[in-house]
């Protein structure tokens, strides 16, 4: 995967033809069950590899909460946020971004608590995986969502040339307004991934494994009752430290992601050339 390039011109023409600018969420996100290609069961690997078109691939995983009101984030991305984000990333000097979309829900009660696309570079394929998400819209009302599923999958089921060839971590960003469940039991892992040997993992176990290959961030959305909860914000800050970023509204999401991706890549380059880098979180906080 990861072939082709991102064209704002081609994307704009297709967006007009598809009605992205004016169609309601339900007419764009038409999946009423998990898409077969996004079902993690039986998946052994998702890869971000270099190619002739993209000799220096840089992996970015965007994890969207598919429960309740958080469905407005994917809708915003397909309407305007994604092309803006991609253009800003490429303008920053990252020529070969490869983006993988995931959807997460609640592994205790949802039918599709984890959905996984492919790492892609082209505008057409990024739109495909984004709009193939099943926005289940449930969640369990049980004090959390399963953001740890993204960390679990990224840490164990992805490989990238960026890390393996160049020692450069990618970026993983979860977006939501709930706390994260504190554990992932072995039986749920088996239900999600298929036959294999599993053991119960904590959220920290999953997070630390993902951090081996990715700089991991969480964007906590301040809209809504859960988003405004000081207790929920404090829990994320305790877990993620500076890599928890408070975001006021969906219109800021694309800019925040683009700035985080750019500053991680630039900080990595600066450290390798022994030039002082800039904290990605500091830059984002100044913007907000």
What report would you give on this structure?
The chain has 288 residues and is an alpha/beta fold. The protein is 42% helix and 17% strand. It has a single domain, classed as 3-Layer(aba) Sandwich (Rossmann fold). It has helices spanning 8-18, 25-28, 72-91, 123-131, 148-157, 161-166, 186-193, 203-211, 224-228, 230-240, 253-272, 280-287; strands spanning 46-48, 58-65, 97-104, 114-116, 158-160, 170-176, 183-184, 201-202, 214-221, 244-247. A six-stranded mixed β-sheet has the order 4-3-2-6-9-10, sandwiched between helices. The chain has a two-stranded parallel sheet with strand order 1-5. A two-stranded antiparallel sheet has the order 7-8. It is globular, with a radius of gyration of 18 Å.
Write the layout of secondary structure elements.
Layout: H1 8-18, H2 25-28, E1 46-48, E2 58-65, H3 72-91, E3 97-104, E4 114-116, H4 123-131, H5 148-157, E5 158-160, H6 161-166, E6 170-176, E7 183-184, H7 186-193, E8 201-202, H8 203-211, E9 214-221, H9 224-228, H10 230-240, E10 244-247, H11 253-272, H12 280-287
Parallel strand pairs: 1-5, 2-3, 2-6, 6-9, 9-10
Antiparallel strand pairs: 3-4, 7-8
Helix pairs in contact: 3-11, 5-8, 11-12
């Amino acid at each position: 995967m990861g072939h082709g390039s991102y064209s704002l011109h081609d994307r704009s023409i297709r967006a007009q033809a598809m009605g992205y600018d004016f169609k309601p969420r339900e007419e764009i996100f038409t999946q009423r069950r998990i898409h077969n290609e996004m079902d993690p069961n039986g998946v052994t690997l998702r890869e971000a590899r270099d190619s002739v078109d993209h000799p220096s691939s840089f992996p970015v995983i965007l994890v969207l909460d598919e429960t309740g009101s958080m469905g407005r984030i994917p809708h915003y991305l397909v309407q305007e946020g994604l092309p803006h984000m991609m253009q800003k990333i490429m303008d920053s000097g990252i020529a070969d971004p490869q983006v993988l979309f995931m959807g997460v829900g609640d592994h205790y009660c949802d039918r599709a608590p984890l959905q996984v696309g492919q790492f892609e570079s082209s505008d057409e394929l990024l739109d495909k995986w984004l709009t193939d998400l099943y926005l289940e819209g449930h969640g369990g009302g049980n004090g959390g969502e399963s953001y740890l599923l993204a960390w679990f999958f990224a840490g164990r089921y992805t490989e990238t040339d960026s890390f393996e060839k160049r020692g450069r971590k990618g970026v993983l960003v979860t977006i939501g307004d709930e706390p994260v469940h504190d554990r992932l039991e072995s039986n749920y892992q088996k239900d999600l991934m298929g036959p294999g040997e599993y053991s119960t993992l904590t959220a920290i176990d999953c997070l630390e494994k993902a951090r081996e290959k990715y700089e991991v961030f969480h964007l906590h959305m301040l809209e809504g009752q859960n988003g405004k909860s000081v207790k929920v914000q404090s829990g994320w800050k305790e877990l993620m430290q500076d890599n928890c970023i408070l975001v006021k509204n969906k219109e800021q999401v694309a800019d925040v992601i683009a700035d985080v991706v750019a500053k991680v890549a630039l900080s990595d380059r600066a450290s390798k050339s022994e030039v002082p880098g800039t904290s990605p979180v500091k830059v984002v906080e100044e913007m907000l």
